[in-house]
Amino acid sequence: GFIRVDRDYVAQAAELARAGGCKHFVLQSSRGANHHSRFLYLRVKGEVENLVQAVGFDHCTILRPAVLLCKRQESRPMEWIARQFLSVVAWVFPTAYSVPVETVARAMVAAVLQPGKGKVEVLENGAIHELGKA
């Protein structure tokens, strides 16, 4: 199910968007995304990045955030513990290991309003923080 949702559905949505005239696609991926990764999550994120780029948008922005800081409705105890720890770390190193979801959302909007140069732009966690302040 994870592969179908995080790779296949996203790639299909990109194709439909392009067919509908979309010229700039913004994809939220993950830090460490790599289609050669031995870790399923990072491999799938890398695969969907490649698939979206292959669709042929005039411009494609890929955001690779670190751990997303957000409140979830479902119970994920280990993720909750990680978020608590990273919230404290974020006080000292605000852009190193995490990013609030609101910052990612603002960066996505800013990427559309102020597209970067080149056909594909990949924004890592630090750049997401900077763009999310705009």
From TrEMBL:
Organism lineage: Eukaryota, Metazoa, Chordata, Craniata, Vertebrata
CC annotations in GO: cytoplasm
Example GO BP: import into nucleus
PANTHER family: OXIDOREDUCTASE HTATIP2
UniProt xrefs under InterPro entries: NAD(P)-bd_dom_sf
Name of the protein: HTAI2 Oxidoreductase
Gene3D superfamilies for this protein: NAD(P)-binding Rossmann-like Domain
